[in-house]
Protein backbone atom coordinates (compact mmCIF):
# COMPACT_ATOMS: atom_id res chain seq x y z
CA UNK A 1 0.00 0.00 0.00
CA UNK A 2 1.00 3.64 -0.36
CA UNK A 3 3.15 4.92 2.49
CA UNK A 4 4.46 8.40 3.13
CA UNK A 5 7.56 9.86 4.67
CA UNK A 6 9.40 13.15 5.01
CA UNK A 7 12.89 14.45 5.47
CA UNK A 8 14.11 13.60 8.95
CA UNK A 9 11.18 11.26 9.64
CA UNK A 10 11.38 7.48 10.07
CA UNK A 11 10.09 5.86 6.89
CA UNK A 12 8.36 2.54 6.39
CA UNK A 13 9.09 1.00 3.01
CA UNK A 14 7.49 -1.37 0.54
CA UNK A 15 10.99 -2.36 -0.58
CA UNK A 16 14.08 -3.45 1.36
CA UNK A 17 14.99 -2.15 4.79
CA UNK A 18 16.25 1.44 4.58
CA UNK A 19 18.29 1.34 7.78
CA UNK A 20 21.47 0.99 5.77
CA UNK A 21 20.67 4.16 3.82
CA UNK A 22 20.28 2.31 0.53
CA UNK A 23 16.93 1.27 -0.93
CA UNK A 24 16.70 -1.48 -3.56
CA UNK A 25 13.87 -3.40 -5.02
CA UNK A 26 11.95 -0.63 -6.79
CA UNK A 27 10.92 -1.00 -10.39
CA UNK A 28 10.38 2.72 -11.01
CA UNK A 29 11.50 5.93 -9.35
CA UNK A 30 9.44 9.01 -10.22
CA UNK A 31 11.18 12.33 -9.65
CA UNK A 32 8.49 14.94 -9.03
CA UNK A 33 5.05 14.83 -7.44
CA UNK A 34 3.36 17.39 -9.65
CA UNK A 35 0.44 16.54 -11.97
CA UNK A 36 2.55 14.59 -14.49
CA UNK A 37 4.35 12.53 -11.84
CA UNK A 38 1.17 11.78 -9.91
CA UNK A 39 -0.73 10.93 -13.10
CA UNK A 40 2.02 8.55 -14.19
CA UNK A 41 1.96 6.83 -10.81
CA UNK A 42 -1.82 6.56 -10.91
CA UNK A 43 -1.79 5.17 -14.46
CA UNK A 44 0.41 2.29 -13.21
CA UNK A 45 -2.18 1.19 -10.65
CA UNK A 46 -2.69 -2.55 -10.90
CA UNK A 47 0.55 -3.11 -12.82
CA UNK A 48 2.20 -4.94 -9.91
CA UNK A 49 5.22 -2.64 -10.15
CA UNK A 50 6.99 -1.22 -7.09
CA UNK A 51 7.18 2.54 -7.40
CA UNK A 52 8.93 5.26 -5.40
CA UNK A 53 7.70 8.82 -5.92
CA UNK A 54 10.08 11.52 -4.64
CA UNK A 55 8.86 15.10 -4.16
CA UNK A 56 10.66 17.98 -2.46
CA UNK A 57 7.46 19.63 -1.19
CA UNK A 58 6.15 18.52 2.20
CA UNK A 59 3.33 16.03 2.44
CA UNK A 60 0.89 18.65 3.72
CA UNK A 61 1.39 20.78 0.58
CA UNK A 62 0.82 17.82 -1.71
CA UNK A 63 -2.34 16.83 0.13
CA UNK A 64 -3.83 20.32 0.20
CA UNK A 65 -2.20 22.59 -2.42
CA UNK A 66 -3.07 26.26 -2.20
CA UNK A 67 -4.94 27.94 -5.09
CA UNK A 68 -2.36 29.20 -7.59
CA UNK A 69 -4.63 31.19 -9.92
CA UNK A 70 -4.24 28.85 -12.87
CA UNK A 71 -7.30 27.37 -14.59
CA UNK A 72 -6.50 24.38 -16.81
CA UNK A 73 -8.40 23.93 -20.08
CA UNK A 74 -8.82 20.15 -20.19
CA UNK A 75 -9.62 18.58 -23.54
CA UNK A 76 -11.99 15.66 -24.00
CA UNK A 77 -8.99 13.36 -24.34
CA UNK A 78 -7.58 14.56 -21.02
CA UNK A 79 -10.98 14.15 -19.36
CA UNK A 80 -11.03 10.59 -20.67
CA UNK A 81 -7.57 9.87 -19.26
CA UNK A 82 -8.53 11.29 -15.86
CA UNK A 83 -11.77 9.31 -15.94
CA UNK A 84 -9.90 6.07 -16.61
CA UNK A 85 -7.69 6.85 -13.62
CA UNK A 86 -10.68 7.39 -11.34
CA UNK A 87 -9.75 11.06 -10.91
CA UNK A 88 -12.51 12.88 -12.81
CA UNK A 89 -15.26 11.64 -10.49
CA UNK A 90 -13.47 13.32 -7.57
CA UNK A 91 -14.15 16.82 -8.93
CA UNK A 92 -17.06 18.76 -7.48
CA UNK A 93 -19.60 20.38 -9.81
CA UNK A 94 -18.18 23.78 -8.89
CA UNK A 95 -14.72 22.67 -10.01
CA UNK A 96 -15.68 22.15 -13.65
CA UNK A 97 -16.66 25.04 -15.95
CA UNK A 98 -17.68 24.34 -19.57
CA UNK A 99 -15.59 25.88 -22.35
CA UNK A 100 -18.14 26.21 -25.15
CA UNK A 101 -16.30 28.41 -27.62
CA UNK A 102 -12.94 30.11 -28.15
CA UNK A 103 -12.44 33.43 -29.94
CA UNK A 104 -9.25 35.06 -31.13
CA UNK A 105 -9.08 38.86 -31.34
CA UNK A 106 -6.36 40.97 -32.93
CA UNK A 107 -5.46 44.56 -32.10
CA UNK A 108 -8.34 47.07 -32.11
CA UNK A 109 -10.36 45.15 -34.72
CA UNK A 110 -13.81 43.89 -33.63
CA UNK A 111 -13.41 40.85 -35.91
CA UNK A 112 -13.04 37.56 -34.06
CA UNK A 113 -12.02 34.13 -35.33
CA UNK A 114 -14.27 31.66 -33.53
CA UNK A 115 -13.86 27.96 -32.74
CA UNK A 116 -16.73 25.81 -31.43
CA UNK A 117 -17.30 22.08 -31.22
CA UNK A 118 -20.01 21.92 -33.89
CA UNK A 119 -20.70 18.36 -32.78
CA UNK A 120 -22.96 16.54 -30.36
CA UNK A 121 -20.61 17.63 -27.60
CA UNK A 122 -21.74 20.97 -26.18
CA UNK A 123 -18.24 22.16 -25.40
CA UNK A 124 -14.64 22.31 -26.57
CA UNK A 125 -13.47 21.16 -23.15
CA UNK A 126 -13.62 22.05 -19.47
CA UNK A 127 -11.83 24.48 -17.20
CA UNK A 128 -10.67 23.10 -13.85
CA UNK A 129 -8.50 24.85 -11.23
CA UNK A 130 -4.94 23.57 -11.26
CA UNK A 131 -4.79 23.13 -7.49
CA UNK A 132 -7.90 20.92 -7.57
CA UNK A 133 -6.36 18.72 -10.25
CA UNK A 134 -3.24 18.32 -8.13
CA UNK A 135 -5.30 17.62 -5.02
CA UNK A 136 -7.50 14.97 -6.66
CA UNK A 137 -4.52 13.27 -8.28
CA UNK A 138 -2.87 13.06 -4.86
CA UNK A 139 -6.04 11.69 -3.32
CA UNK A 140 -6.29 9.06 -6.06
CA UNK A 141 -2.91 7.49 -5.25
CA UNK A 142 -3.60 7.14 -1.53
CA UNK A 143 -3.56 3.46 -0.67
CA UNK A 144 -2.28 2.47 -4.11
CA UNK A 145 -0.64 -0.94 -3.93
CA UNK A 146 3.11 -0.89 -4.50
CA UNK A 147 3.52 2.89 -4.29
CA UNK A 148 5.87 4.52 -1.76
CA UNK A 149 5.83 8.31 -1.45
CA UNK A 150 8.81 10.28 -0.15
CA UNK A 151 7.75 13.86 0.53
CA UNK A 152 9.92 16.65 1.90
CA UNK A 153 13.17 15.59 0.23
CA UNK A 154 14.53 16.07 -3.28
CA UNK A 155 17.00 14.26 -5.48
CA UNK A 156 20.60 15.46 -5.27
CA UNK A 157 22.26 13.10 -7.75
CA UNK A 158 21.47 10.58 -10.49
CA UNK A 159 23.43 7.70 -12.04
CA UNK A 160 22.20 5.32 -14.70
CA UNK A 161 23.82 2.03 -15.67
CA UNK A 162 23.05 -0.92 -17.87
CA UNK A 163 20.94 -2.62 -15.20
CA UNK A 164 19.55 0.14 -12.98
CA UNK A 165 19.16 3.84 -12.25
CA UNK A 166 20.36 5.07 -8.86
CA UNK A 167 19.41 8.34 -7.19
CA UNK A 168 20.88 9.99 -4.12
CA UNK A 169 18.38 11.93 -2.04
CA UNK A 170 19.16 15.26 -0.43
CA UNK A 171 19.06 13.56 2.97
CA UNK A 172 21.84 11.18 1.93
CA UNK A 173 19.81 8.03 1.25
CA UNK A 174 20.04 6.25 -2.09
CA UNK A 175 17.41 4.42 -4.12
CA UNK A 176 17.72 2.27 -7.21
CA UNK A 177 15.21 1.04 -9.77
CA UNK A 178 15.00 -0.35 -13.26
CA UNK A 179 13.51 2.90 -14.62
CA UNK A 180 13.83 6.56 -13.60
CA UNK A 181 11.07 8.93 -14.75
CA UNK A 182 11.81 12.65 -14.50
CA UNK A 183 8.81 14.93 -13.92
CA UNK A 184 10.50 17.74 -11.99
CA UNK A 185 9.55 20.85 -14.05
CA UNK A 186 10.68 22.49 -17.26
CA UNK A 187 13.92 23.56 -15.55
CA UNK A 188 14.67 19.99 -14.53
CA UNK A 189 17.93 19.27 -12.73
CA UNK A 190 17.37 15.55 -13.28
CA UNK A 191 17.27 16.11 -17.04
CA UNK A 192 20.55 17.99 -16.85
CA UNK A 193 22.20 15.19 -14.86
CA UNK A 194 21.02 12.69 -17.46
CA UNK A 195 22.97 14.69 -20.04
CA UNK A 196 19.90 15.63 -22.11
CA UNK A 197 20.30 18.98 -23.82
CA UNK A 198 17.26 21.24 -23.94
CA UNK A 199 16.13 24.22 -25.98
CA UNK A 200 15.20 26.88 -23.42
CA UNK A 201 13.84 30.28 -24.36
CA UNK A 202 13.07 32.82 -21.65
CA UNK A 203 10.63 35.29 -23.16
CA UNK A 204 11.24 38.29 -20.90
CA UNK A 205 7.52 38.48 -20.22
CA UNK A 206 5.32 37.36 -17.36
CA UNK A 207 1.68 36.44 -16.87
CA UNK A 208 -0.53 37.94 -14.23
CA UNK A 209 -3.35 35.53 -13.40
CA UNK A 210 -6.36 36.18 -11.17
CA UNK A 211 -10.06 35.47 -10.88
CA UNK A 212 -12.41 38.35 -11.61
CA UNK A 213 -16.13 38.88 -11.15
CA UNK A 214 -17.77 40.94 -13.90
CA UNK A 215 -21.06 42.58 -14.81
CA UNK A 216 -21.55 40.91 -18.19
CA UNK A 217 -22.23 37.30 -19.17
CA UNK A 218 -19.39 35.38 -20.80
CA UNK A 219 -21.58 32.64 -22.27
CA UNK A 220 -18.87 30.04 -21.75
CA UNK A 221 -16.69 31.77 -24.35
CA UNK A 222 -12.93 32.08 -23.89
CA UNK A 223 -11.17 34.95 -25.62
CA UNK A 224 -7.51 35.39 -26.53
CA UNK A 225 -6.92 39.02 -27.40
CA UNK A 226 -3.61 39.83 -29.02
CA UNK A 227 -3.78 43.55 -28.41
CA UNK A 228 -1.03 45.87 -29.51
CA UNK A 229 1.43 45.91 -26.61
CA UNK A 230 -0.34 43.26 -24.53
CA UNK A 231 -1.95 39.83 -24.69
CA UNK A 232 -5.03 39.23 -22.57
CA UNK A 233 -7.06 36.06 -22.21
CA UNK A 234 -10.35 35.66 -20.40
CA UNK A 235 -11.30 32.11 -19.42
CA UNK A 236 -14.97 31.54 -18.47
CA UNK A 237 -15.71 30.05 -15.07
CA UNK A 238 -19.04 29.20 -13.47
CA UNK A 239 -21.34 32.16 -12.94
CA UNK A 240 -20.18 35.67 -13.75
CA UNK A 241 -16.58 34.79 -13.03
CA UNK A 242 -13.58 34.51 -15.31
CA UNK A 243 -9.89 33.91 -15.03
CA UNK A 244 -8.00 36.94 -16.36
CA UNK A 245 -4.58 36.19 -17.87
CA UNK A 246 -2.58 39.27 -18.77
CA UNK A 247 0.84 39.02 -20.46
CA UNK A 248 3.23 41.97 -20.49
CA UNK A 249 6.95 42.64 -20.03
CA UNK A 250 8.04 41.27 -16.66
CA UNK A 251 8.64 44.67 -15.03
CA UNK A 252 5.19 45.93 -15.97
CA UNK A 253 3.52 42.80 -14.62
CA UNK A 254 5.35 43.21 -11.31
CA UNK A 255 4.09 46.79 -11.12
CA UNK A 256 0.50 45.72 -11.70
CA UNK A 257 0.77 42.87 -9.20
CA UNK A 258 1.72 45.38 -6.51
CA UNK A 259 -1.50 47.37 -6.97
CA UNK A 260 -4.25 47.14 -4.40
CA UNK A 261 -7.31 45.07 -5.47
CA UNK A 262 -9.42 48.11 -6.42
CA UNK A 263 -6.70 49.62 -8.60
CA UNK A 264 -5.94 46.27 -10.22
CA UNK A 265 -9.66 45.73 -10.91
CA UNK A 266 -9.85 49.11 -12.65
CA UNK A 267 -6.70 48.36 -14.62
CA UNK A 268 -8.00 45.00 -15.88
CA UNK A 269 -11.39 46.51 -16.76
CA UNK A 270 -9.67 49.21 -18.81
CA UNK A 271 -7.26 46.84 -20.50
CA UNK A 272 -10.11 44.57 -21.57
CA UNK A 273 -12.06 47.53 -22.99
CA UNK A 274 -14.98 46.83 -20.65
CA UNK A 275 -16.06 43.91 -22.85
CA UNK A 276 -17.52 42.23 -19.76
CA UNK A 277 -18.34 45.45 -17.95
CA UNK A 278 -16.66 46.42 -14.70
CA UNK A 279 -14.44 43.71 -13.22
CA UNK A 280 -13.58 43.04 -9.60
CA UNK A 281 -10.56 40.99 -8.60
CA UNK A 282 -11.50 37.98 -6.47
CA UNK A 283 -8.68 36.63 -4.33
CA UNK A 284 -5.04 37.36 -4.99
CA UNK A 285 -3.14 37.80 -8.23
CA UNK A 286 -0.34 35.39 -9.18
CA UNK A 287 2.66 36.09 -11.40
CA UNK A 288 4.42 33.53 -13.63
CA UNK A 289 7.51 34.35 -15.74
CA UNK A 290 7.22 32.89 -19.23
CA UNK A 291 9.72 30.42 -20.67
CA UNK A 292 9.36 27.60 -23.18
CA UNK A 293 11.46 24.44 -23.30
CA UNK A 294 11.85 21.42 -25.55
CA UNK A 295 14.18 18.56 -24.65
CA UNK A 296 16.34 17.22 -27.49
CA UNK A 297 15.51 13.71 -26.29
CA UNK A 298 12.71 12.34 -24.14
CA UNK A 299 14.66 9.31 -22.99
CA UNK A 300 18.15 8.23 -21.95
CA UNK A 301 19.63 5.01 -20.60
CA UNK A 302 17.18 3.66 -18.00
CA UNK A 303 15.33 7.01 -17.91
CA UNK A 304 12.44 8.91 -19.50
CA UNK A 305 11.07 12.47 -19.34
CA UNK A 306 7.38 13.34 -19.01
CA UNK A 307 5.31 16.49 -18.49
CA UNK A 308 7.03 19.87 -18.58
CA UNK A 309 10.39 18.13 -18.15
CA UNK A 310 9.98 16.88 -21.72
CA UNK A 311 8.11 19.85 -23.24
CA UNK A 312 7.35 23.16 -21.55
CA UNK A 313 4.72 24.83 -23.72
CA UNK A 314 3.72 28.48 -23.98
CA UNK A 315 0.27 28.78 -22.35
CA UNK A 316 -1.29 30.67 -25.26
CA UNK A 317 -2.79 27.53 -26.82
CA UNK A 318 -3.57 25.89 -23.44
CA UNK A 319 -1.95 22.60 -24.46
CA UNK A 320 0.82 22.28 -21.89
CA UNK A 321 -1.06 20.35 -19.21
CA UNK A 322 -2.90 18.19 -21.75
CA UNK A 323 0.34 17.29 -23.49
CA UNK A 324 2.01 16.46 -20.18
CA UNK A 325 -0.90 14.24 -19.14
CA UNK A 326 -0.74 12.51 -22.51
CA UNK A 327 2.98 11.83 -22.07
CA UNK A 328 2.34 10.21 -18.68
CA UNK A 329 -0.45 8.03 -20.10
CA UNK A 330 1.61 7.02 -23.14
CA UNK A 331 4.65 5.96 -21.12
CA UNK A 332 2.50 4.20 -18.51
CA UNK A 333 0.73 2.22 -21.22
CA UNK A 334 4.01 1.02 -22.70
CA UNK A 335 5.45 0.16 -19.28
CA UNK A 336 2.33 -1.70 -18.13
CA UNK A 337 2.06 -3.82 -21.26
CA UNK A 338 5.76 -4.65 -21.15
CA UNK A 339 5.61 -5.55 -17.46
CA UNK A 340 2.68 -7.88 -18.18
CA UNK A 341 4.93 -9.74 -20.66
CA UNK A 342 7.75 -9.74 -18.06
CA UNK A 343 9.85 -7.64 -20.41
CA UNK A 344 12.35 -4.90 -19.61
CA UNK A 345 10.34 -1.82 -18.63
CA UNK A 346 13.36 0.38 -19.35
CA UNK A 347 14.57 -1.39 -22.46
CA UNK A 348 15.89 0.65 -25.35
CA UNK A 349 13.05 -0.43 -27.66
CA UNK A 350 10.37 0.69 -25.20
CA UNK A 351 12.08 4.03 -24.61
CA UNK A 352 12.50 4.61 -28.34
CA UNK A 353 8.81 3.87 -28.89
CA UNK A 354 7.86 6.33 -26.17
CA UNK A 355 10.12 9.03 -27.54
CA UNK A 356 8.80 8.61 -31.09
CA UNK A 357 5.17 8.70 -29.94
CA UNK A 358 5.58 11.78 -27.77
CA UNK A 359 7.65 13.62 -30.37
CA UNK A 360 4.92 12.98 -32.93
CA UNK A 361 2.34 14.37 -30.50
CA UNK A 362 4.36 17.35 -29.29
CA UNK A 363 6.56 18.65 -32.12
CA UNK A 364 3.79 20.04 -34.38
CA UNK A 365 2.02 21.67 -31.41
CA UNK A 366 5.22 23.17 -30.07
CA UNK A 367 6.21 24.57 -33.48
CA UNK A 368 2.72 25.95 -34.17
CA UNK A 369 2.53 27.57 -30.75
CA UNK A 370 5.91 29.25 -31.19
CA UNK A 371 4.82 30.58 -34.59
CA UNK A 372 1.59 31.96 -33.14
CA UNK A 373 3.40 33.65 -30.27
CA UNK A 374 6.07 35.17 -32.51
CA UNK A 375 3.55 36.48 -35.04
CA UNK A 376 0.84 37.71 -32.70
CA UNK A 377 3.12 39.47 -30.25
CA UNK A 378 5.01 41.33 -32.99
CA UNK A 379 3.57 44.84 -33.25
CA UNK A 380 5.60 46.03 -36.25
CA UNK A 381 3.44 47.14 -39.24
CA UNK A 382 4.23 44.12 -41.49
CA UNK A 383 3.40 41.72 -38.66
CA UNK A 384 0.18 43.56 -37.88
CA UNK A 385 -0.91 43.14 -41.49
CA UNK A 386 0.04 39.44 -41.46
CA UNK A 387 -1.90 38.95 -38.24
CA UNK A 388 -5.04 40.40 -39.79
CA UNK A 389 -4.67 38.39 -42.99
CA UNK A 390 -4.16 35.07 -41.22
CA UNK A 391 -7.23 35.55 -39.02
CA UNK A 392 -9.35 36.49 -42.04
CA UNK A 393 -8.02 33.51 -43.98
CA UNK A 394 -8.83 31.20 -41.10
CA UNK A 395 -12.40 32.48 -41.03
CA UNK A 396 -12.78 32.03 -44.80
CA UNK A 397 -11.48 28.45 -44.85
CA UNK A 398 -13.77 26.07 -42.94
CA UNK A 399 -11.27 23.20 -43.07
CA UNK A 400 -8.73 25.34 -41.21
CA UNK A 401 -11.21 26.12 -38.42
CA UNK A 402 -12.23 22.47 -38.31
CA UNK A 403 -8.63 21.29 -37.99
CA UNK A 404 -7.88 23.74 -35.21
CA UNK A 405 -11.12 22.82 -33.41
CA UNK A 406 -10.27 19.12 -33.52
CA UNK A 407 -6.81 19.92 -32.17
CA UNK A 408 -8.31 21.94 -29.32
CA UNK A 409 -10.73 19.17 -28.40
CA UNK A 410 -8.54 16.09 -28.77
CA UNK A 411 -4.97 16.90 -27.72
Secondary structure: elements and pairs:
Layout: E1 3-5, E2 22-31, H1 35-43, E3 51-55, H2 59-63, E4 71-75, H3 76-84, E5 97-99, E6 101-106, E7 112-116, E8 125-129, H4 130-141, E9 147-151, E10 155-160, E11 165-169, E12 174-182, H5 189-193, E13 198-214, E14 221-227, E15 230-236, E16 241-249, H6 250-257, H7 261-271, E17 279-295, E18 299-300, E19 303-305, E20 311-312, H8 320-340, H9 348-376, H10 381-396, H11 398-410
Parallel strand pairs: 1-9, 2-3, 2-12, 3-9, 6-14, 12-19
Antiparallel strand pairs: 4-8, 5-8, 6-7, 10-11, 11-12, 13-16, 13-17, 14-15, 15-16, 17-20, 18-19
The N- and C-terminal alpha carbons lie at a distance of 33 Å
Average pLDDT taken over every residue: 89
Beta strand count: 20
- Low-pLDDT residue intervals, each spanning 5 or more residues: 4-22, 399-406
Label the structural class.
alpha/beta
Explain what you see.
This protein is α/β, with parallel strands linked by helices and 411 residues long. It has a domain at 3-65 and 133-200 and 293-370: FAD/NAD(P)-binding domain (3-Layer(bba) Sandwich), CATH 3.50.50.60. Helices cover 34% and strands 32% of the residues. Strands 1, 2, 3, 9, 10, 11, 12, 18 and 19 form a nine-stranded mixed sheet that branches. It has an eight-stranded mixed sheet with strand order 7-6-14-15-16-13-17-20, with helices on both faces. Strand 15 and strand 16 (241-249) form a beta hairpin. Helix 1 packs parallel to helix 4 (130-141), helix 1 (35-43) packs parallel to helix 8 (320-340) and helix 8 (320-340) packs antiparallel against helix 9 (348-376).
Amino acid sequence: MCQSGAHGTEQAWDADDMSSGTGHGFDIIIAGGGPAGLAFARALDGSGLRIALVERQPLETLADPAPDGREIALTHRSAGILTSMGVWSRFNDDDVAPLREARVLNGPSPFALSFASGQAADRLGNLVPNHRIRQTLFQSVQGQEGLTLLAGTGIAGVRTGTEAATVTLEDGRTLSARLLVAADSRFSKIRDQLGIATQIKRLGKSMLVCRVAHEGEHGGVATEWFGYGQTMAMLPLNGRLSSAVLTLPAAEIERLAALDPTALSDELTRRYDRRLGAMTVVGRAHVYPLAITYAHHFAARRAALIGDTAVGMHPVTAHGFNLGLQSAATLAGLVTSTAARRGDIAGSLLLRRYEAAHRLASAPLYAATRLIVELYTDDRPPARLARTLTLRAGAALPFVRGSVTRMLMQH
